[in-house]
Amino acid sequence: RKALPDPGFKSQTEYVGPRDELEAELGRLWAEVLGLERVGIDDDFFSIGGNSILIIRLVSMIEKRLNFQVKISWIYTHATIRKLKIYLENKKPRELIHLLNHYNKNKKNIWMLHPGHAGTEVYQKLAGLLDNYYNCYAIDNYNYYNENSPINELKPLAEMYLKNIQDHSHYTCDEVTLLGWSLGGTIALEIAAALEKQGIKNIKVYSLDTIIVDEYLKNLNTQIESMIPLDERIKIRSKEMEKQGYDSEYIKKINTLVPIEEKISKQSLSAKLNKTKVILYKASQVKNSLNEIEQKYMQYIELLHANNVDKICQWLQIIHLQCHHYNILELYDSYIANDLIREILKQEYCDNFAA
Prior knowledge:
Layout: H1 21-34, H2 52-66, H3 72-77, H4 81-90, E1 97-99, E2 108-113, H5 124-129, E3 134-139, H6 142-145, H7 154-167, E4 176-181, H8 183-197, E5 203-208, H9 215-227, H10 230-243, H11 248-255, H12 258-265, E6 273-283, H13 292-303, E7 313-321, H14 328-354
Helix pairs in contact: 1-2, 7-8, 9-13, 10-11
C-alpha cells in the first residue's frame, strides 16, 4: 500500500464551465474545498475527491458566502453543480424533512430522527445501503436551524416532528417505521407514543443504543455537569470534532445545541408504549477516552438489560452489538441495514405465501 502513488482525482466528464454567477461561485467553492484548480458544472462531487467531511465544510461555506440554507443530504442527492443550482433555486427554505436517498413509490418509508448534537447526515451511508428498499426521510434538527426559538422539551419537540411527518405528501398511517440513534431514538419513542394516542397500531421503532434515564443516571448527569462546566464540555467535544475534520462553523453551531439537548435527554416519555414494536441495538462496550464519572455512567448502562427501554414498552427485541455508543453506526450500519431489508423480504414472502 505504501508503494502505491497518491490517488489523483479528476473528472470523468468533459469540462463544462459555469453559465451564470451562481454556478461560477459554486464552482469556486467546490474547487477550494476539494483543492482543485477548477470544477465543471457536471463534475460529480464524489468522483473528484469529495467525502462526508468535505461536504460539511462545503455546506458551511455555501451558507456563509452565498446565504443559502443548505442541508448536507442535498449534496448527496444533487452531486453536481448543475443539479445543486437548480435545486437551490427551487427549494423552499428550511424544510425540516428531506430525502436521504432516491424516492420510489413502491418502497416503504422510514423516518430517521436526528441524534443529539448532530444532524441527520450521520444516517447518509445507512440510507444508501437501504436505497433499493426504503425511502429514507431525514427529520433534521429543528434547533440547529432555529436557535432564536428553540424547543427544549421532549414532548412538544416530538409532536412538532410528528406534525411535519403527517403533513408530508408521502406519509401513510398504514405502517409507520421510525429510526433514531441515541437521543434520536428517544424522540422516535415519544413520537410512537403520540401515534398510539391517535389510535395507530402498526408502528415500529429501530432504536440505536437509546438510553432512557432513571434516577441514578440523572444523579450521575448532575455530577458530570458540576465536575465539568459547560464551557469545558463544549471544548472537549470541539477538539474531538476537529480531529475528525469537521468544519469550524459547523462545530460552533452544533455546540449551541449542547445545553438544550442535555435538558431534553433527561426527560421521561409521556406514556408507555403498548402497541409499538421496538428493536433496540444495544452497544456492549464502553469507550475508553471518558472521564471517571462518564465511565461510571456508561458502565452502569452496560449492565442494564435494555438501557431501560424495557421499562417503557411492551414489545421489545434486543440485539447486542460489540461496539460502544459512539461508533455504533460506523461499525454496524451494514448489519442494521441487513436487518431492515430482511424485514421487507420476510413481509413480501408472507404476502406471497398468503396469496
